[in-house]
């Protein structure tokens, strides 16, 4: 049996128990390893669903000029999926993004445009929107595209429910575009409204790639606070430390947003007596080797 296309390998990522991070034996912490997606991150799910849905609706075709602002993983996923469908895409990101991310996007055939680091991802978003309004580009708009969260409603949520045999009590996710937490929450709450949905958000002045505390003007349009039961703040140092612990103690090589997600899950566990927590491990650590994350 073989996959007919690489996109058939998106999703159905494994859950693995963390054996060294929580001392309470009545609490099980499960890590959902999204780095096992073919593009290396959870964003493969949303990228595929956004592009495939836009094609199905006739909003884009092979003559379309796609553009998207990204901090990295979404761009890699879009670069991979766009080329599989024969589409051209330009990806806009801050110039301080790791070289691994830029080179991976280019390897898939995307054009990468770097914007000033001081302007952050907000500056990249402004640049992309200007290209749409002035030069006829089409933006998939991961921050406002409902096909983003619907990808997780269709795949991530059902997988967690299936693989925990419906016993999951808490779900923890880093919040960037918020697509993962919105879609997974929607599905899990339909199955069991008692399941607690917990979002990881950076503490003030913390810089954790992939996790954001958005200014009001840039808050993702797909975000609905009613779908999140609790938000726990995580510091940059906590995210860094947990990322290193994941590698050294659990053999899980991941990025800093994953460290933030799991650090949040461990904080959550300290308030619980028992339960099953599922935490998203967003991507793989090899995307950060040129940074100081593991130094």
UniProtKB/TrEMBL annotation:
Any one GO molecular function term: cysteine synthase activity
Keyword Transit peptide: no
Presence of the UniProt keyword Coiled coil in the record: yes
Reactions mediated catalytically: O-acetyl-L-serine + hydrogen sulfide = L-cysteine + acetate
PROSITE patterns on file: CYS_SYNTHASE (PS00901)
Tryptophan synthase beta chain-like PALP domain segment(s): 8-283
Coiled-coil ranges per UniProt: 225-252
Pfam families recorded: PALP (PF00291)
EC number of the protein: 2.5.1.47
Superkingdom, natural source: Bacteria
Known pathway: Amino-acid biosynthesis; L-cysteine biosynthesis; L-cysteine from L-serine: step 2/2
Keywords noted in UniProt: Amino-acid biosynthesis, Coiled coil, Cysteine biosynthesis, Pyridoxal phosphate, Transferase
Cofactor names: pyridoxal 5'-phosphate
Cited InterPro entries: Cys_synth, Cys_Synth/Cystath_Beta-Synth, CysM, P-phosphate_BS, TrpB-like_PALP, TrpB-like_PALP_sf
Enzyme class: transferase
Stored NCBIfam families: cysKM, cysM, PRK11761.1
Family: Belongs to the cysteine synthase/cystathionine beta-synthase family.
Protein name, entry field: Cysteine synthase
Species the sequence originates in: Namhaeicola litoreus
